[in-house]
């Protein structure tokens, strides 16, 4: 056990090494890596009685819990018992947490409050202190500004690099290899508006080698080089992830949800994870795998925020304050991913965050805006647009169309539920069979299959974002896309009159496109299941939206043709004349995309707001809302978990879903440890254990904290000590304090007991003890986890209601989660961490 | 004391009568109306220890708190002690609350959870029960739909009626008196595009009488008739408010905030308030007073929601569930006021709501959208626009312009702070002097002054919304508005080349407009202070925005002229050429409006989002945000309260601001009642008081609840009984149960004590007792009100930590508020209610 304070991002090597030996991560769980210990947790109990009683075995009581509570957090009180300055660390590492443990929100918030009070008090004394107080107050805003700038800049860089490498698979720019296809042809003077994408400077590999773009040989050459590049990028990505930061794989959102709920995963948001994730994200996207960069951008933004937190003492030293910043960073991530700042803030509020005070809302919004504008000034899409998919529809929708929109919602819900089940099953196979031992082989195999199948079909060959963009697009007359391969009005009637954007019959080009799209839909649906969860950074937003957009566009074109050929039919009569533009297939694609994304993630408000920000028209919110609602209801019927919650459960993180409620009511005594058959609870006594005894007890158990009682004979609860604080303090005392040996008494009471005068001086550790651990009585009902989740506790001590504060046992968050799993007929041992 | 259950909206007559005799309301406080009692409240204490202990003086303990807890809420438990069906009321009125009291969130939520569990359990038994379960699950959505439809329709009606009556002051449509000016001229075929507002069918009163629109006589006639109409409308409004629903005055937002925090004000959201508010709002707006209809629309929407709640048992019977619906209704109100559904939801979240679960977020959004679309299909503005002010700007803004934007923010903050201070001072004068006794005279006087001063100036004569709309507008070439009275390019240079929308020098028309605007600014600033708080419905959004918009437009035109004449100057060089349209005065007006509204209400995110929804362009968010932020910071420097919080405090409502923290830390014992000098606490004993004794105790005190102890000699806490439940139960027992007389024992313990066999049977009231009141020990620190606010308690009982559960005293929310007022050197007796 190290006594050096371990900051989140400093820890990458240690956890990196650990992880490297265990490639199980991203396959569901750090199997056997961190054996679970049975305490040290946050618990959620809903009971009827709260009793804020202080410890009544600790004379004198009038010293008050308050100062004690402060000093245990290493913080100066106003009373005479103050020992330390709240702005300085007394013992390095005291008050920090171990890896894979849950923080104590109450302690962190109390620490921050004390710190704030101290600064305010000082500010009246001198000008320097006043300046310090002002700079402290504005440091939150400055931090948000920096997070926004950094995340926006990184997102811009990722966009540009991914564009360039994606195009690299197909060809090269003769003016310079560092130009992407689009960039290359911008510079060309020979490009006309019609053929924006064709210019002599850009040559496919086949063209470059054979000298001609025609012929089967050139095509096969292109095909092969495409696959080779894809394999190379994928290999690079998976190797870098394995070598530098195993945490860089996946989308990161399940872990960020868990971290925001108060869990500690050191290195998950560190600098090496950031660098590796940024680089490998570009490679993974460029390899053509069916994954998106939007989810991982949330992880990237959170890494930026965590690293920048180190610049400000206020955030560096307080895990609760840091989580406020991380919540805002999650908003920043979505803001730069879609160019939707308001949607990003609501995403953070609805989907990711745990503790989201109003102050954070306002700051998140600020950071999200800064990031969006930074991204726009980098202008990676080359169109000065803020949003990822810019859509402009011309025709309004009709009420009857709600039927197909709801149908798309049902499709999205079904696909979402099915996807989650299939993906979790596949991840479980990966986790339990030999497959998990060969992540590189797995990635290469999936990449090879993807590249092989994707190349011949233009809709799978293009990147997910391009595909969605094309599907959302409304056909204009100039459009050369296959999807707009309608017969021209002139072909139909010789008059040539009528609205040129009116519904038209499908031509052969469109039929080809539809076939290709149907195949692409099938392929995307299958390959995404095996792709998400591999050891490369991979987001789910884009693949889900792509599936939905294809389905929606197919339905939309179908509806359009139906309307064209049956405009006098019962359904279309009155609103669909042949001259009018009555069905917009692009809108169907958009609704389908929302439905599928909703089915997979179970987002609601944030999903609709993100989509609203893409179109900018309130008009289209109703279809989006109808689809998102239907999709959520349908998917919820098959299982209430979204993909992120499912992965959290698969990995065994201690995450308590705020929406969940106990179906059956239990009493605290049913959930408590130790059980009747277990060995008795490991406890410390307040003034009768030696340093050696304490060390032996700590060594022999894996608990993260120990209750302190009066004595073994009179097990009345006095306080609670965290394992980490205990070890650090003893270690520190042995180094600095003279005379502390193994035989020294460890004293938690205020006055040490009378001792032999020749004995070693006692080690007084009252300062690190939580004098007022949260206690419940054994018959407290546990109805809803929600109300006590708000208190943010680590554990409850159970005391007897009859004998004053007789300690009976402990309940940790893990115990609650195990109990809930048991009730739901799931394996209680699937909860791994504390 | 009535035993009939009194629903919120049924109570209008009673409270109406009460209020009629006391015109103090809307002047700040129901002075002396409801004398404060000293208990029955919600308390917010932050302590370190929570002890969920059950009552240990009640044998046998193993019966568990849980079933007991259920049965006290009139709810069936699963255990053998179940007595009642949770879906039926056992005793009418049991479990409801008295007027001007705070609800017990924990009890309400527990009731709802039990109800839900019961329905789920039943649904497995029969198809009918399953259908009931499904309809119950969807009733929330149905309710939201109805609220949206009703509020949208009402808002549309109010818009149309207010338009019509406002125009009525100036003239009449010859085709039918029921047409507004605009409507009248739509129908006219003689109207050209240029003179949309002039048509022969519409005649001013002077024109109608004198036959000509020219001449001083006609003008004076118009002037006089304008004043007469204004006085008539105002008189009607104030008389109707006084006669039918005194609660209909003001904006309603302070009271709704208080109601959402758990306070009961019967009749405040009832049907008579709704009808009166709707009618008088139209009249007040039409009278030309400096007030808006946007704030009161929130009240109207909440009334709709409260009335519609009566259709669904789930919401009718549960105060906590009903408050979820009311939170959504607040969103609906803003949604219809501005056509900004997302802004409305964020307004509800940020500004109004107290308890806002994610489920409510999604439902609010749904309701807000339905309402917005209902309003649009009514199309009251006649332009198919959803938003109140539709703005389209052409030119981007430059970074240098942030300086004037921040300047506008400072102006808004200063004005906001000043306005709050002046308005509160004026309301206090009204409250304490004889002025408050003549509300009709006051309203008529203010209306007369407003009409007299406003008529000659066209910018004050037009309605606030029209003024803002004109100020936000960007000048196009065709614009005939005085504000666009620039010299034409042809006048400047003979070339006539250049962008026709480029900056131009101001012409005489514009100078006149600027003078008029400056006078209008001064007038609006003064008159709004005395208008807000009168006994008519009055909103603050529009007047605040108008002040800001005028200031912004003035600054904008100033900047524009500066740029035109100094385009080679240091500041404008590089981005402001003479041919370019570089300054948009309309944007300045918008930024100013946001700044002033922010200064008055201290809204942040919702303000910016509402403004964003008006423009639809993310580009202009940065100026808005800069102004809103500056404005809030500047205003906060003068006092942290927004106008709504200031009015809450003025009225003495028991509202605990979530943002507030205790500056000094106190112990529970310092806040507790009774004080040392007070008479001892009024308590009930568990099995030694008679019905007569209990009644005498209840009669002699005004407390809303009583602790139950073992006996006077052994004051150990057993439970807590609410006054209302106690009275209703005794009354009910006397009526229905044989043998209950004054000498009957009232028994709260499980087993009645041995009694003389010939005595009357005991009255067993264990069912209505809260067996597990929240308790704290006397030395619990009270640091932050926030963490315990979340628990939603009514009161805490103080117990001794040494002697098991010895009752020491009680802390109510009022005690906390008084304590906070004392610390802040304010009058603690300003807190009036429980």
Automatic annotation (TrEMBL), chains A, B:
Keywords: CBS domain, Chloride, Endosome, Ion transport, Membrane, Transmembrane, Transmembrane helix, Transport
Keyword Chaperone: no
Pfam families (alphabetical): Voltage_CLC
Topology class, membrane: Multi-pass membrane protein
GO MF assignments: voltage-gated chloride channel activity
Major localisation: membrane
Residue ranges occupied by any CBS domain in the UniProt entry: 672-736
Compartments where found: Endosome membrane; Membrane
Positions in coiled-coil regions: none
Xref: InterPro entries: CBS_dom, CBS_dom_sf, Cl-channel_core, ClC
Ranges annotated as spanning the membrane: 141-165, 223-248, 297-313, 325-349, 399-418, 438-455, 513-534, 540-557
Residue segments, region Disordered: 59-85
Database matches in SMART domains: CBS (SM00116)
Highest taxon listed in the record's lineage: Eukaryota
Any one annotated GO CC term: endosome membrane
Keyword Transcription: no
Family indicated by similarity: Belongs to the chloride channel (TC 2.A.49) family.
Name of the protein: Chloride channel protein
Species: Takifugu rubripes (Japanese pufferfish)
